[in-house]
Design goal:
The complex is a heterodimer of chains A (457) and B (63).
Chain A lengths: L2 H9 L5 H14 L6 E4 L1 H13 L10 E5 L27 H8 L3 E6 L11 E2 L3 E2 L1 E2 L2 E5 L5 H8 L5 E6 L5 H7 L2 E4 L19 E6 L2 H11 L30 E4 L9 H13 L3 E4 L4 H19 L1 H6 L6 H11 L3 H21 L5 E5 L12 E4 L2 E4 H4 L5 H6 L3 E5 L8 E5 L5 H13 L7 H5 L4
Parallel strand pairs in A: 2-3, 2-8, 11-12, 11-13
Antiparallel strand pairs in A: 1-3, 4-5, 6-7, 8-10, 9-10, 9-16, 13-17, 14-15, 16-17
Helix pairs in contact in A: 2-3, 9-11, 9-12
Chain B lengths: L8 H14 L9 H21 L11
Chain lengths: 457, 63
């Protein structure tokens, strides 16, 4: 039974939200070796599920268990954001907007997931809470920084989980774990009640094993929110009931240049495979992509460092060393670097807008390679040794820097998973779903089947 | 000239000390190498920007 059918059973009283939540919690405990979760919220989850069972009929997500990266606030619990320092923090007074919206729609939050400390990284090898294992090959990393959420979904523990994406932290782990990961347009979903990292670049979004689950959860989270100054006041654009039709005359820009430089064979093959199924696909370049990535890199260090200055001054040795050293260095950069980065953003946004005058959608590999082994510092691509942590986001960073909506879709493969990044103009998330559905029908996109067999549905 | 491309390791170390004092920070001894390596990486990225960014470009960020 798929998620939609299970929700239907809960809504008409043939199944119970409490049983679904319990099964999800048991699955999380049975798969604790993955290190996907940092806490299970059994008491809260069972209370929420009981509420849903009492009045399930009008809830579009009735009983659906979900997980959230541990930087989302949940009232009554401290928000860790992957940091040992935050273990001492007072409990959150309110729950993050998007979690409340999912709960109002009938979903049940079962636990909080592992992440890179303060979301600064692409590996989820957390110095305090351990490394999250990739369910497709447990010797390999899940990617980051939302790696625990991706692993929980890929392992079938929950149908949907929430992550955040500043430079690629939803799309990278989605690619490495073989699932769908959506980073909507900057400002589409409220970030209120999330631990910030780089406010100029922070987004939140969902992971799922199916497009239908992704769309359902995305729809339930949409809407203006005065508690997040960056959240748009534009009307929600529900898509769950309306993405089965492929846009006609679709012109696809296949990103070359920066977006295939440093790509491993599996990433190049994936791009060729997907590009080959479109009737109108042309190779194009975003000339400013490398500089956009550099600007995102600098802006991240500067804003991230600024956010942490007090604790870096008083408790530097309580940080993950890799995170601390980069935050400290970011704090020391001269103001001119910040100005360069901001001007580059405007310049790059103009370039992207011009490209979307000729194409409806852009595609690139999501990651330059499939999942590296846990603890691997470098990967060899085309004979060149590249540091893993810095380079998994090569192709995602320029896109989030511009604030564009992007969906990582899992390529159908017998080997390790790898994702394709679909990129649309601002506010055109529906187009991403339409193209992803069409790619499913062409037989080139599908989430991993091994994980589906074990899924808690 | 590239952004900060003229700096030597010693120059960067001196800059690190001065800038951290200005920010009210004491870089722990065991972090110095890591911070220095990251500072060099950031400045390399800044050099990429310096070559392409038009200083008269309006940086307004409305999407």
């Amino acid at each position: 039974m798929n998620t939609l059918a299970h929700i239907g059973e809960v809504r008409n009283g043939k199944a119970r939200a409490q049983d679904w939540a319990r099964a999800s919690l048991e699955s999380a405990r049975a798969k604790a070796r993955l290190c996907a979760f940092t806490s299970l919220l059994e008491e809260d989850a069972m209370a929420q599920a009981a509420c849903v069972d009492a009045s399930p009929a009008d809830r579009p997500l009735a009983g659906m268990p979900f997980a959230a990266k541990n930087l989302f606030d949940v009232a009554g619990h401290p928000t860790l954001a992957g940091a040992r320092i935050n273990r001492d923090a007072p409990p959150a007074r309110r729950t993050a907007t998007v979690i409340s919206r999912l709960a109002n729609a009938g979903a049940t939050l079962v636990g909080m997931t592992n992440m890179d400390e303060f979301a600064y990284g692409f590996a989820t090898e957390n110095a305090h809470f351990g490394a999250t294992r990739n369910p497709c090959d447990e010797t390999r990393m899940a990617g980051g920084s939302s790696g625990g959420s991706a692993a929980a979904v890929a392992a079938g523990i929950v149908p949907v989980a929430l992550g955040s994406d500043t430079n690629g932290s939803i799309r990278v782990p989605a690619s490495l774990c073989g699932i769908y990961g959506l980073k909507p347009t900057f400002g589409r979903l409220s970030r209120a009640g999330t631990y910030p990292f780089v406010s100029s670049l922070d987004h939140v979004g969902p992971f799922a094993r199916t497009l239908d689950d992704l769309a359902l959860s995305y729809d339930a989270m949409q809407g203006a929110d005065g508690a997040d100054p960056a959240c748009s006041r534009t009307d929600p654009d529900p898509i769950a009931a309306d993405f089965d039709v492929m846009p006609s005359d679709l012109r696809v820009g296949v990103l070359g240049g920066w977006f295939i430089r440093h790509a491993a064979a599996e990433a190049k093959d994936a791009l060729d495979l997907v590009a080959g199924v479109f009737a109108q696909a042309s190779r194009v370049e975003l000339q400013g992509a490398q500089a956009a990535r550099s600007a995102a890199f600098c802006m991240t260090g500067i804003e991230g460092g600024s956010l942490h200055i007090r604790q870096l001054a008083t408790r530097p040795m309580d940080y993950d060393p890799a995170v601390r050293d980069r935050l400290l260095a970011g704090l020391l950069l001269p103001a001119r670097v910040s100005e360069l980065a901001r001007r580059m953003r405007r310049q790059f946004i103009d370039e992207v807008a011009q490209l979307f005058g000729s194409f409806h959608i852009l595609i690139s590999p999501t990651t330059p390679c499939s999942a590296p082994r846990i603890g691997e510092a470098c990967v060899e691509i085309d004979g060149v040794e590249l540091p893993v942590r810095a380079n998994l986001g090569l192709y995602t960073q320029p896109i989030s820097f511009a604030g564009l909506p992007a969906l990582s879709v899992p390529l159908k493969t017998d080997g390790l998973p790898i994702g394709m990044q679909l990129i649309a103009p601002y506010w055109a998330e529906k187009r991403l779903f339409q193209v992803a559905r069409w790619l499913e029908r062409q037989g080139v996109v599908a989430s991993g089947t091994v994980q589906k067999q074990e899924a808690v549905l | 000239m590239k952004f900060a491309g003229h700096l030597t390791d010693a120059d960067r170390q001196a800059y690190m000390d001065a800038a951290s004092r200005l920010a009210g920070l004491t870089i722990p001894e065991e972090c110095r190498d890591g911070v220095h390596a990251n500072l060099r990486l950031f400045l390399d990225h800044a050099a990429v920007l310096d070559e392409i960014v038009d200083p008269f470009r309006d940086p307004a960020e409305l999407l």
